[in-house]
Amino acid sequence: MKNLNKALFFGLFALIVVVEIFVHLHDQQTISKLRTSLQEFRQLAEDTPNSAAHKISEFSNQKIHQVFEFFNSDADDSQQQTDVDYEVPMELLASETQFLETRQCESEKNVFFLKTSKTGSQTLMAIMQRFGIQNNLTFFLGESMNGAMSNLQMPITYERDCWIGKNIPEEKFQISTQHLKYNKEVIDNVMEPGTKFFSIIRDPTTNFVSSYRYYQYLLGRLWSQFGLREIGETKGASSELLYKEMEHFLEDEKRAWRYLKNVSPASFARIGTLRPQLIFFGSFTDVNGKEWMSYDRDIPEEVLQAWFKKLDADFEFVMIMEYYDLGLALLVNEFCWSIEDVAYLKVNAQAHSGLELSKKAVRNLEKINYPDYALYRYFNETFWEKVDSIGRAKVEAIAELIGTKSAEIAQRCIQDEYLNNNGTQKIKPRLKEGVYEDAECGRFLMHGPSMTKVTQRYMIDHFGKKYKSCSRSATPTTWSENMEKNKESLRYKYKFLSGHGGRFT
């Protein structure tokens, strides 16, 4: 009995100490793993007879060994994977499937999705658009080619920004899927009462790298100061050059701020690199009446925490890209959506270059973009609290079902050339022969600007003669001309995608 007590005490104490260490290091992914270990240990301690003291000691040593391996690893823990294989027992999957099929709840139809950038949000937008079309919902959309609103660095306002149906203030929208900068007052006024809010963020280091690589052609006002490119070399830079530029930019924090000072806050060269996630969450007014923007250089920690708490109260939850399917599982559970509602085909995934930022570059990035890192830590913690409140095994079972259903639909609908591509080739997904009249396959494939144009045309037709453009242009815009020129084909696509006949075009 004495040996058992010593083993229990040693194991439990070691795990608690390790959890405390990682709390101070702010490594939320490892914290969540260690919490699971702690729960496993407590359960083992409760269920184990006295003769199993050796087994408990062995269990403790194994967990501690895993921690030492983590400390000694050279791997970059910011390069987290989004594809996770959950070891879920078959009986739990069967039980969860039956529960989802028989539960008594009403599917949430009024949803505001705050679309951030380079966070897996394009795939989420496709899921939301598909859900909106299937359920004949009204979309909150900008009068622009990509449907975005508040294109500058400022939160969306009535005075400055434009959306379809703005001239009909009594009309309320049911679903929002496009980029905008958050302003609770405006969103509360335009969306249906009781609308549920959610968003998605990712590790700020990988977000910065992804943003720089993807939007390089929009960052000219920044990288033109580095002197590392030839004149006129604005697109198609190699991964080696892009990382060389990022390293140069992040080599010296003070110099980086001088570069940023030479760029307007409204330029994408700043929007896409300086706190590129917090900027989507609008602004915050503190107790003294001062309004803080994401790009303000020195935001006090207490202001950030108050800002995050306010957002936490507004949003049902914020997904974490590194745990994508778990986040979708929260959607299924919290919004009473089906597994089919959130099945998805990955889009806009970048091929891995094999290159990484140096530790010095990351340290300086953490100083410059510290509000994004604080945002990530805060909502990473609330994400796992939400998961644990539902039950981790339950959420993982739903995530497993989502992955299985996504693979099933992809195998039935999408050409093998795309599905078998390992990321080294840029191949567009296409439908298989024989499924062009299958609306589910069409919705599964269609995404991005093409789907946005379909929903924009639908909303113009929805408002009918009451609709008037809010564009300030004296002549028709490229967008309005596009809507008029292609109205019949866009109407046909909406009819097909909503399951009312036709075929994919």
The end-to-end span amounts to: 73 Å
Described by strand count, sense and barrel closure, the largest sheet is: 5 strands, parallel
Helical amount among residues, as a percent range?
40-55%
Task: Give the overall shape, derived from the CA principal axes.
Answer: globular
How would you sum up this structure, described in words?
It is a single chain. The chain is mainly alpha-helical and 505 residues long. The chain has three domains: 2-72; 90-202 and 301-351 and 375-497, no CATH class; 216-271, no CATH class. Helices cover 53% and strands 5% of the residues. It is built from 22 helices and seven strands. It has helices at 2-25, 28-47, 53-72, 90-102, 121-134, 184-190, 204-214, 220-223, 239-250, 253-261, 268-271, 301-314, 324-335, 339-342, 359-368, 370-390, 392-413, 416-419, 439-445, 448-463, 478-485, 487-497, and strands at residues 111-114, 139-140, 175-176, 196-201, 283-285, 291-293, 317-320. The strands form two sheets. It has a five-stranded parallel sheet with strand order 2-3-1-4-7. It has a two-stranded antiparallel sheet with strand order 5-6. A hairpin with a 5-residue loop joins strand 5 (283-285) and strand 6 (291-293). Helix 1 (2-25) runs antiparallel to helix 2. The longest helix is centred in the N-terminal third of the chain and has 24 residues, at 2-25. The radius of gyration is 25 Å and the shape is globular. The termini are far apart. InterPro entries: Gal-3-0_sulfotransfrase, P-loop_NTPase. Belongs to the galactose-3-O-sulfotransferase family. Its main location: Golgi. It is a single-pass type II membrane protein. Keywords: Glycoprotein, Golgi apparatus, Membrane, Signal-anchor, Transferase, Transmembrane, Transmembrane helix.
